[in-house]
Every structure is written in structure tokens, then in C-alpha cells.
Design brief:
It is a single chain. It contains four helices and no strands. By secondary structure, the protein is mainly alpha-helical. It is elongated. The N and C termini lie far apart (85 Å).
Length: 90
């Protein structure tokens, strides 16, 4: 091996690839401005029932999708069962 090439290799640092990077070509990126785990906390994520038939990679991908669409988990139940009279039939 050429000594110049050997020096170049010595200075290289290993890449840190995240799970998000692995699946980037499969995903639509996050478009909301809320910070990760603002609504979908680790506790809530643990309570989501995910089939045991999925592989770990599939579970990771699903988790990333959940975090990318975390904004959809923002709701409350203060108006549950309250339908406005303007939108119902007489």
C-alpha cells in the first residue's frame, strides 16, 4: 500500500450512521417543527402494541415513521361527544 494512501486511511474516522439514515430513501422526512418525543414519549411508545411477527428492522422503521408523524398524536378528549348543531341533521 502506498504510504500516502495509508496516511489518508489513518485519519479517517468511522461514520456514525443512525437508523434514520438507513431508511432515509424509504421515508418522507419529518415536516413538523415539534421536537422528537414531545408527544410520543418513550413511555407511550412502549404502550403501543406492535406485532411480534415483525422483524427488529421493521419495528425500527415503524418507530421512525411514528416519530416523523408525531404531530398526529396531538389531541385531547375535551370535545369528545360534542358535535356542533350546525353539522348535524335536524
Amino acid at each position: 500500500m502506498d504510504w500516502k494512501v495509508a496516511l489518508d486511511y489513518k485519519d479517517l474516522k468511522p461514520l456514525s450512521i443512525t437508523k434514520e439514515d438507513l431508511y432515509a430513501d424509504l421515508l418522507i422526512s419529518k415536516f413538523s417543527n415539534i421536537i422528537k418525543e414531545f408527544r410520543l414519549t418513550l413511555e407511550r411508545l412502549d404502550n403501543i402494541i406492535i406485532s411480534n411477527r415483525l422483524t427488529e428492522a421493521e419495528k425500527d422503521l415503524l418507530t421512525i415513521i411514528f416519530y416523523n408523524r408525531e404531530i398526529v398524536f396531538i389531541w385531547d378528549f375535551t370535545k369528545i361527544g360534542k358535535v356542533k348543531s350546525e353539522v348535524i341533521f335536524p
